[in-house]
Amino acid sequence: MATRSTIMDTNSFRAEHADALDAETRKLTDKRSRLLGESYRLFYRNPVHLVRGEGQYLWDAAGDKYLDVYNNVASIGHCHPAVIAAVHEQMSQLNTHTRYLHERILDYTADLLTTVPDDINKAMYMCTGSEANDLAIRIAKAYSGGTGIIVSQEAYHGTSKLTSGASQSLGSGQPLAPTTRLVPPPDRYRVDTPDLGIWFANEIQKQIDDMAAHGIKFAGLLVDSIFSSDGVLPGPAGFLKPALDVVHANGGIFIADEVQPGFARTGDSFWGFARHGIVPDVVTLGKPMGNGIPVSGLLAKADVLAAFSDEIPYFNTFGGNPVSMAAAQAVLRVIREEKLQEHSLIVGEKLRQELAQLADRHECVGDVRGAGLFIGFELVSDRAAKTPDKALALDVIERLRAERVLTSVAGPYGNVLKLRPPLAFQAQDIDWLVGSLDKVLSAVR
């Protein structure tokens, strides 16, 4: 049984770290404690005070430069001039909600829909990935007539009432909904099976059967197609097809959460689900969509969406506003013009090769896996037994911070470095990242 973890408390600052801080940092952390709700968390035992960003780089208040190997919000690069210009131009003209006519939302939707299969032909807009997944769950329930939602063991899909009830990685303080069921992650490193796709589909069927045994009707499967919170599990391309088939055979819908693997991140395809040759019923979008401007979306097959939208009006005050649509359109244009999908594929492969070479020098490197610029770097205490080493991973993260490299951890054991830089990350940045990792691993072992 996996040790229960939480994405909020792993790699975080806590009160016992305060005495080691310099005076200015301590002043800011104390002020946060006084003014902000205690649910918030900061990264690192020694929090980073960031004041500026450009591309794949960040600068702190002291002027020190960092390499960002974690940020999927500013996905095309911090402070990209195309997004800044688009937002400024639209903000100087008008910003309002979607109950008035405006070209921006229509033009963007028509463009966005060209990136997905033809069967996916309707869009709705929100501000956050949590809202998009919340609506997706409501649609699943309306379409199926059921309430049961299946997610992966260490899933994170949001912080609303519905999505937090389907987000195991939020930790033991956040209970799962009684209608949520978990499936073990499709981890090719740890699961010994000749066909990962069939194995995963069978695990889904087991949970559907369990729901039925408890009087719960299955509504849908909600998955991030690269299983980010489960430790970055790309699996072999195509392995999700049997999962889609078993979901449909049982009357549910397949929801592809593309908040992390979408928008050219995986290199193989524009969307994470497209690596597997499947057509989801609903696709949810978030963080990278506006490169820092709060905007999210939901794409769906018309007949699936109709089960909800023909009966229930939906309105989101800021969802789809002209400024957010301008930012989102700029992101799409930059991805195409800068050929970021191809870039992600080529640079990601080179990075994985360089990271894999570290395994030759460090016994603690258990596995290197990923797709495009989304890589999991797993650390173990015993390579033969594949024993997770969370303490080592957290020590490595802190030491990388001292090398001015920012990233974090993922997975049920908290032992996988989640390497997910902005797509502005270049081949010349590989030396900084891999060199720092080599140095740190040599020091800690």
Automatic annotation (TrEMBL):
It comes from the Bacteria. PROSITE patterns: AA_TRANSFER_CLASS_3. Residues 162-172 have a biased composition (Polar residues). Residues 162-184 are annotated as: Disordered. It holds the Pfam family Aminotran_3. Keywords: Aminotransferase, Pyridoxal phosphate, Transferase. One of its GO terms (molecular function) is transaminase activity. Signal peptide: none annotated. Its cofactor is pyridoxal 5'-phosphate. Belongs to the class-III pyridoxal-phosphate-dependent aminotransferase family. This is Aspartate aminotransferase family protein. It comes from Symbiopectobacterium purcellii. The lineage of its organism: Bacteria, Pseudomonadati, Pseudomonadota, Gammaproteobacteria, Enterobacterales.
